[in-house]
Structures are given as C-alpha cells and as structure tokens.
Design a protein that fits this description.
By secondary structure, the chain is mainly α. It has 11 helices and no strands.
Length: 287
C-alpha cells in the first residue's frame, strides 16, 4: 500500500506566531479600551499641537531673555554625555563580572560532575547555585526601570549627581549581564575546550578562549547601550538634573516650543554623531 503523503499545514510556524501576535495586539487594545477616536484631540489640544509642530521649522537660537541658546545647549549636551559615560562605564564593568558567573561557559557540567575527586559533586552544586543566584539578581536589576530608581533616590537623597548615575547604572548592569552572558554562551567553544584539554583552568579558558571571540559583539552592544544611556540621561532632566531634558521640560512648561525643538535637535545630533562613530568602530571590529 502506497504511503500517503502528508498534506502541508495551511499555516506554518511563522504564520502561527504572527497570527498569535496580531490576536494579542487586538486583545490588548480591546482590554484597554483603545480606539481610533482616542487620537482625535479637542479644539484646545489641536491648537497646541499645531503650535508645537509648527515650531519645528523655526527652532530658537536665543532664549526668551535674549541669551544665546547654543552655549547653553552645548553645556547641557556635555553634561548629558558625562552622566551617560559614568553610568554605562560602571554598568559595563559590573555587567562583565555578573556575566561571567551568569554564563555556563566558565564551567562545564560534564567536567564538574564527572570529577573523581571528593569535591567534584560539591563543586558542581556550588557552580549551579552561583549561576542560578546571579541570573535571579540580574533579572531583578533589569526589571526596574531607571526612572523608578531616580524617583526613589530623589526622595531618599535629594537632587545630586551620584544618585542620577546610580539610577541608570542599576538596570543597565542587569541588562549588560544578561546580554553578555548570552553572547558568551553562544560563542563557539572550540578554542576554550582546547585550552581545557591542554590543562588550563576554566578561568584561563574563559579569558583567552572565549572572551576574544565574543569581544566584537560585546563592544558593539556596549556602544548601543551607551546610546540608550544618553537618552536615559536626557530624560532624567525631567526630574531636575542638569541635562538636556531639564531644558526641554522648562521650555515646554513656558510654552517656548521653538526652544524645545532646539533642544530636541541637539539631542538628535548627539545620537546621530555617536551612531556614526559606533558604525565605524563596529566595521573595524568585524573587519
């Protein structure tokens, strides 16, 4: 009897995922009561929106008091970059350390569990416990947004630069640790395995067999997170920190929409300049 050919499914795996995403989107819109009518502003809101977007075509070069706006924005840009640099640098170092313990690349379950010494099973359990603990800590760090940390630190310690840096550092550390550990775990391990077979310690195999091969992806992601850090630093200005966000909020509160657009264009130029620089670095790393 001839074998019956299987009829192809009317929708593949990708189609099912896409259909599920569409259904989830419609359910969320229905549950929240969101409809197209919510996008229709009232008469007063429409006038404000027209004024705001019209100001985009003639940004301000002087403040309402007649002071030159460019030096003020350059100072705000410099402080925005400084906040981002401090926070991302600390988060990068902390994330690398947590990524080491949060990855499986620095230890092999087969090697640890198969050791004939009496401490083999104990060492394996200790490594597993460390791995699970670090993954839980990094999940907690990245689950709370930097704005929430900023609110907490602002209420507890007042307005100071250190709390702003820490507010960005905490969630960025968790994100760095998660992504770096995944990059390391997905890096080919042939070089590290060769070092381990030659008698190298797991730490040496990690440092010299895995890190060099994972470094391009690690640095590329770090530059992307630095761009995110600049945006977070700017947003912290809405809480009173002296970054671009502070001038955006003040200008918006005073309905100086031309000044708002000047600050927005300054932030846009900052992101574009850094994006161009990071593209050059990534191209050299890949090459």
């Amino acid at each position: 009897m001839a074998e019956r050919t299987r009829r192809p499914a009317w929708i593949g795996t990708r189609g099912r995922v896409l259909l599920l995403a569409v259904l989830a989107a419609f359910w969320a819109l229905w549950f929240l009561g969101i409809g197209p009518s919510d996008l229709v502003p009232n008469a007063g809101g429409l006038r404000i929106a027209k004024r705001f977007f019209a100001a985009a075509f003639h940004p301000a070069f002087f403040t309402e008091n007649g002071d030159a706006l460019l030096p003020i924005l350059l100072t705000a840009v410099w402080r925005t970059v400084a906040f981002a640099t401090a926070a991302v640098s600390v988060a990068f170092v902390a994330g690398i350390v947590l990524a080491f313990f949060g990855s499986t690349a620095w230890w092999s379950p087969e090697r640890a569990g198969g050791e004939t010494s009496a401490r083999g099973p104990w060492l394996f359990r200790a490594r597993v416990t460390t791995y699970v603990t670090v993954r839980a800590v990094t999940a907690f760090l990245r689950s709370i947004h930097e704005l929430f940390w900023a609110v907490i630190f602002l209420a507890a310690f007042g307005l100071n630069n250190l709390t702003a840096v820490i507010a960005i550092t905490i969630p960025f550390t968790g994100t760095f640790a998660k992504v770096f550990s995944e990059i390391i775990d997905e890096t080919p391990r042939d070089s590290a395995e060769a070092l381990l077979d030659a008698g190298a310690t797991p730490l040496a195999a990690f440092a010299f067999g895995l890190v060099p091969r994972a470094l391009p992806d690690v640095l590329a992601y770090t530059m992307y997170r630095f761009e995110c850090g600049m945006r977070s630093s700017a947003v912290l200005g809405f809480f009173g920190y002296d970054t671009l966000g502070l001038y955006i909020r003040q200008s918006f509160d005073e309905t100086q929409y031309a000044e708002v657009w000047s600050s927005l264009y300054a932030l846009l130029m900052l992101v574009l300049v850094f994006e161009a620089a990071s593209r050059v670095v990534r191209r050299r790393l890949v090459a």
